[in-house]
Amino acid sequence: MNYQHHLTHPYFDNIELEYVKKCLDSGWVTQGPMTKRFEQLFMEKHGGDYATAVCNCTAGLHMAMMALKIGEGDEVIVPAYTWVTSANCVEYTGAKAVLVDVDSSKFNIDPEAIRKAISPRTKGIVVVHEFGCAAEMDKILEIVKEYNLLLIEDCACAVGTKYNGQPVGTFGDIGVFSFHPRKVITTGEGGMCITRDPEIAEILDQLRNHGMSTDERDQTYGAPFYMGHFNILGYNFRLSDIQAAVGVAQMEKLETLLEERRKCAHNYIELLKDCNNIILPEIGHKYGSTFQSFVILLKPGMEKVRNSAMLKLQKQGIQTKQGTHAVHRLKYYREKYGYEENDYPISSYCEDCSITLPIYPGINIDSQKEIVSNLLESLN
Fold first, then answer.
1. 86 near 99, Cβ under 8 Å?
2. Phi, psi dihedrals of residue 372, rounded to the nearest 5°
3. Nearest to residue 252, comparing CAs of 12, 52, 48?
């Protein structure tokens, strides 16, 4: 369908074209100098001592599980309301993704639910900073320390997000970000792992590049015919330099892109603040939301109204989506673990009553007023 108002729209200008041309002119278009520059710029903005660019966030999360030696017999706690990758990355390794419910005010994992789900097999937690709003890290870190658990931060939606002033992705063992077109910055597809641990960083670097490592013999024999060592099973999860060139350009305008999103979100909040049927996303300095998505909730019991409203908006050329899905309702997880429809009631409610409105740099206030006007009319 041809939408007048798309859910998102990546922001590109001549800077991306300039850097891509430099990359193409250099002849080095796979993982190389542009990738290293992108990693460095990302570290400067987000902290962490090591950054590893990868082909997508899913690959990064998979690598994180492997680097932390999570595998068969282990359990990893995951929010039930999240994009399926957050749970899949656990299942890839043979471990079990143990779902827990979320807090509907921020769509993030509930620390008390984490505590109740811990068992002798629990090895770690995947914390998702959903829609660009930081999770309750103080309480989560208390649990991690008390039970000596690993912490993986799924920061797919959270480029630029800070919790109490500290960039997300730097609280746990590994933080993983996404550069999908709906994210704050994009390389088309792409991801980034950050960590403060040099040993983890070395493993991540090997995993993304077929498991290859090097040592002093490489210097002795020289690169032309010495092909390194392959001591672990790796993958081809590399980011191309062409994509990294786009990432470098995007990083240079990150603060502008973030400010545009925040402005758009505040416009929506002002326009919708008097609608009694709508629960607006919580905002506050502590959670540092970057509004990767602007997700509203309709009051409980309005599931059918939500679906009808979204269909009406579609007919008006306005693209919307539910926030994300409740993982326990997906066939793979439902059949494997025997979940029932409403086992995680808050996650189910968030799936059934959430609406994502168009948000992206460059959307103007008149467009937002038109979107809100049609939304309110459709709810009636």
1. no
2. -65, -40
3. 12
Contact of 134 with 288, CB cutoff 8 Å: yes
DSSP bridge partners of 229: 213
List 45, 139, 183, 315, catalytic entry: 183
User: Is 183 a catalytic site residue?
Assistant: yes
pLDDT tens digits, 45-59: 998 899 999 999 999
Structure tokens at 207: 């995993």
> Which runs of consecutive H residues, i.e. helices, occur in the chain?
14-26, 33-46, 57-67, 85-91, 111-117, 137-147, 198-208, 216-221, 241-252, 254-272, 303-315, 331-337, 345-353, 365-379
Q: Phi/psi zone of residue 248: left (φ > 0), alpha (ψ -120 to 50 degrees), beta? A: alpha
- 344-367 CB burial, b ≥16 within 10 A, e <16: bebbbbbbbbbbbbbbbbebeeeb
Q: Are 316 and 5 in contact (CB under 8 A)?
A: no
Which ranges of the chain have pLDDT less than 70?
215-226
State the pTM of this model: 0.95
Question: Which tokens sit at 249?
Answer: 């350009």
* CB 226 within 8 Å of CB 242: no
302, with CB counted inside 10 A (0-12, 13-18, 19+), is middle
What's the pLDDT at 180? 97
- Give the closest residue to 344 by CA, choosing from 365, 327, 369: 327
